[in-house]
Design brief:
The protein contains three helices and no strands. It has 103 residues and is mostly helical.
Length: 103
């Protein structure tokens, strides 16, 4: 339930930001109309529908790259990678040393 409320809040904030930016820029720059909050949400949905195929194609390439890279690693390299990512993201202990296997 909390995630649903956060999702609704997030969509509302993005819709409001879109409305404010549109109403600030488009009428002045292009003599376009002012839009309402609901029109801003519709504009966001339309852009998602139109641009969705582009984002799917782009992200698929990244996914395949990491699958190939991961499958080519040894178990020791995978463990080292995991530890580096934990330390980098703040999940690991800052005092925990990272072994460097490269010579």
């Amino acid at each position: 339930m909390k995630m649903v409320l956060l999702g609704i809040l997030g969509i509302s904030i993005v819709g409001l930001i879109t409305q404010v930016l549109w109403n600030w820029l488009v009428p002045v720059l292009f003599a376009g109309p002012l839009i309402t909050f609901w029109q801003a949400l519709g504009l966001l949905l339309l852009s998602k529908i139109l641009l969705w195929p582009l984002s799917k194609r782009h992200s698929a390439g990244k996914s395949n790259y990491w699958k190939q890279k991961w499958s080519g690693m040894t178990d020791e390299e995978k463990a080292l990678f995991r530890q580096k990512m934990k330390n980098k993201c703040g999940w690991g202990s800052a005092t925990e040393p990272v072994k460097n296997t490269e010579q």
